Amino acid sequence: MSQIDLRELQSTEFPVPTELQDNVAITSLSRIYNWSRRNSMWPLLFGLACCAIEMICTAASRYDLARFGMEVMRASPRQADLMIVSGTVTKKMVVPIVRLYNQMPEPKYVLAMGACASGGGPFKEGYNVVSGIDQYLPVDVYVPGCPPTPQALMFGLISLQQRIDGQSLMDMDDIPWYGVGPSDPVPVPILGPDVIDPRQMELIRQQAQAAAAGLPFGARELPKAAVDVVEKAKKVAAAAKPAAAPAVAAPKAADAADDPEKAERLRKREEALARKRAAQGKSE
Hints:
The chain is mainly α. Among the domains are: 39-178, Rossmann fold, CATH 3.40.50.12280; 250-284. The chain is built from 9 helices and 3 strands. Strands 1-2-3 form a 3-stranded parallel β-sheet. Helix 1 runs antiparallel to helix 5 (150-165). The relative contact order is 0.08.
């Protein structure tokens, strides 16, 4: 206990005498909880691009992250508290990044390091780069720069510590992982129309070959069980189909001669009904 500055924990309306402040601390449970977490943030050991070089430099002896309790970078997401997304996030890499985030235990935080991780950077709107990791993960702190300096990353880490200091055990919005009730399901990456899922590469390759050969592509074959369900649903719908309505009598020639506008409306209605019947016949 001699190495701990108890003045950091003093958080009370009852003053402590100066001569006892090094030996006694009167504080709250939330303050102890936040103090212990902010001083033992273990980052996840992975990097993506040039920002990772600056992150490695920050962890070196010149800047010494050990002063903040963040020098223990873990190679396993199950032992990490902080994910530093350092570098360009490609559409191929966003899937394993989200998978690593899902494997981290609560409480966990995300720091977007650099312009690429924050908003796409110089590759924004590129064919293979996502426009910010915040479209897939909840980001707590953004560190601007291309790449950010080690001082900028340390400022972002200190900002994260200040955010942790403001959390309270009494507010479930601050610490939802301690709330009662059912847990939310594990989120999965929401892939947009231009994001390629590596698990579908064989299907994408087949469609590309069909498109190059001039054949129809893009229609996926349903499994046999799904085809049987569709056929059964069609039969049930056909059996429950009501009897066909009687055909509407054609307008009389006298009425058409008396009111040409009405005759034109009736003609268009008959054509629409004929097209509808033809479409229903094809679907059956």
